[in-house]
Every structure is written in structure tokens, then in C-alpha cells.
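User: If only I could read C-alpha cells as easily as an amino acid sequence. Underneath my words sits a plain record pairing an amino acid chain with its C-alpha cells. This is the protein in question:
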Amino acid sequence: MEPKDYPKVWPKQYPKSLTTPKTTLWHNLEVAAARYPDKPATIFYDSHLSYAELKRQAEQLAGFLQQRCGVGRGDRVLLSAQNSPQFVLAYYAILRCDAVVVPVSPMNVTEELEHYVNDSGATTAIIAQELYLQFKPLMGQGLSHAILATYSDYLTAPAALKPPDLVSAPRREILDPGVVGWDDALAAAYGPQPAQASPDDLCAILYTSGTTGKPKGCMHTHHNVQSTAFVYLQWRGASDGGTVTLSALPMFHVTGMQAGMNGPLYKGSTIVVMSRWDRDCAGMLIERARVTNWSAITTMLVDFLSNPKLDQYDLSSLQVLGGGGAAMPEAVARKLEEVIGLPYVEGYGLSETMAPTHINPPQRAKRQCAGIPIFNTDARVVDVENFSELKPNQVGEIIVRGPQVFQGYWKQPEATAQAFLEHDGKRFFRTGDLGYYDEEGYFFITDRLKRMINA
């Protein structure tokens, strides 16, 4: 079902399609730093980092990666840390090298990390210091360089709220070969080489566990990432420079990456960074930073609403509340509207689609619903056996096509071929999710295809 088929539910203030900028993600930061140099790009437990400083430090780190670690165009660099200014800085420093970010979960153990290192071919990693013990066995066994970040280095102002112990921990000196501290990397003050990346260059490889075998790397170009970064806040009515986003979902994951980092940076917004979920901290941050936008998962909001101290926090600045990952229970959605006064706007997407392919219309969201296909996105439902197109309320596999769809799985041509389908003369990505759309064009997810077949 294409957008032209359901004009009645399409937000009236939006065109049916938008042109994705023909620029790189680094260019987004350059523009934001030029427009809002003194504005906080991040607020980290009351410590501010301006856009000008974010750009300057990212360039210094990029120079170090190029000149000391040998990172060049197209090289992959692992990034593992909790949400922090350093995660944002490292992500954009890697992009400034014309290299490819490989974000991995801080919860990964050495065996899992070994797969990411060997599969991606990364020889350099930027990691938080508390994760180093998991990476240490890989030094000299795939990894040649590691830059260690200490969160507390960016606690530059007294905080009215107590940061997690993980964040306030002091810097540890590690003298292992190939390891350098973040502060030493910046102090080297190397300048980066001229940027060469194009919108069609790879910019990120996101590993997805899928349902079988080892995690596969989803290859995304700058164009893929831009196509959802610039529409995330646009769809939800954000103004340039005027949005304050609470970034509580992990930035290594596609939703946190786009809704909590790349989208806000595209808009020149302020990112309020939470390293660990804490419902009291979230309430205080919303009040103190006057947060306007928050993307959260269901479990987070259930915990937030059950806080007996919730009425102590001023949440009146919130304008948009949304998320995905799992359907929002009716009772929780109703309580959210009663307590916060906002509907929970659900969306749907995958690592292969750089987050959203669908979001509910903000003015007319349906509950426990994936929403409608966003700008430039074509979504259909097909029969799981013969791939014939189904009609409203018939359950089948959801397939999508659009600028956010990935290039394929890293070094896995067979898996890539199986992930796509020729339909109606066009190439669609097979989501592997079962669902249907109703008469108004709203999509609903019912199950995973592989789980159904296995059963």
C-alpha cells in the first residue's frame, strides 16, 4: 500500500514525500555548529557541551584516529559505551575520518566482541574504560588500537542530581600496548585530513542478531541514515534548534541512535543524555532541561508512571512522546494521557531500515499500532507462500522499500539475496514480520514469520 492510497490519514501539514539531503552526517554537525555554536549540543547531568566544542573535539579525535591509528576512508571502527558525550563525539569523529561506525552493546562479552572484530575487520576501537576488560583479550588479536573514554571527564559542572556510579567513576590509567586515554588522544591536537566521504559511502554497520546464526552486519550509507534522521523530528513537529530531546534509549541501538542522537543533531537540538535508566533522574532531567521530546520503550514508561514521586516533577515542557519496540498496553497508554497529557505515538522499524518505516500520525495515533509508512516509503503485505499481495485485514509478511532500507548484510551475499524480493516490478525488503493493514492504511504487527514457521 503506497502513501497515495490513504490520503485521509496522512498528516495534512506534510507533503507525501521529502527529498533526503545529498550530504553526509558530518555535514549535519558542521551546519549545526555554524548556526548554533554556543548552544548546548549535549547536557550530561547538568554539564553542557556546546555545538562548537562538540565539532572541535570530534575533529581532534578524528585527526588522532587518522594519524595515530591509521583509520582511513571506509575502515570500520568499533564503538562501545553507554550514552555519553563521548559516544556522540566518537561517532562523529569516526564519520569525520570518512570511516564506518560499528556500534556494539556495552553488555557484549569477549566472545561476542571477537565476532564483531573479526567480521567487520576493525582494527581500532573506541570504548568506555569499564568495558576494557572484555576487549583486552582482543588487543593484538584483531585490534591494534583502543581509545578509552572516562565518563566523568565530561562532568564539568556541579550536578543537582547524582550521576550513576558508573558515570562518576574516576579515570584509570591503563598502560597496555596500543591503548591510549581519551584525554591524551585529544591533547595530541591532530587536525583531520580533508573530508572525502559521499552520501553513498557506508557510514554505519549495525549488527542484528536476527533469529539464526551469528549476528549479521547491516550496511547503511550516509543517505540511508539521513533519510530517517531528518524525518524523525520533522514528523513529530520539531522546530529547527528549538527541541530538547531526552536521550534515554541506548545510542548503540538504531532507535536511540536516530531519535536520540542523529535526528536531534540534524535539527540543531539539545540532547539530554542519560547513561543509565533511572525514573527519578528522568523526571528531574525533564524538569531541569525543559525537555520537549522523548522516545521511550514501554517498560521504561511503565516504570516511570509507577514512581510514587512522579507528581513532584514538572513535566509540562513535554510536547511529544513516542517510541516502539513493543506494543503499548491500553491501560498504560491511557494512564500516560491522564498523567502527562500526551498520546504515545508508536512507530515501527528495524536495524535493516535504520529505524522507522512506519509512525502513527501525531494527530490521530492508534494504540498498539505500527502506524502508516513515513515519507517516501512503500509498504505492502504479501502472502507468505506465493508472495501475492494481500488486501486490508489479511495477515501476511510486511515488505518495504524506501531510502532507509539498508544495502545488505556485510560480507553475506546469500543472506542479502534472501532478504529482498521482487514485487510489482520493484525491489522490496522482507521484514520477516507478520502483520496486516486496516481500511485506513494503519499497519499492525502480529508475529515474526520465522517463529511461525518453526512452530
About this structure: The two ends are 29 Å apart (CA to CA).
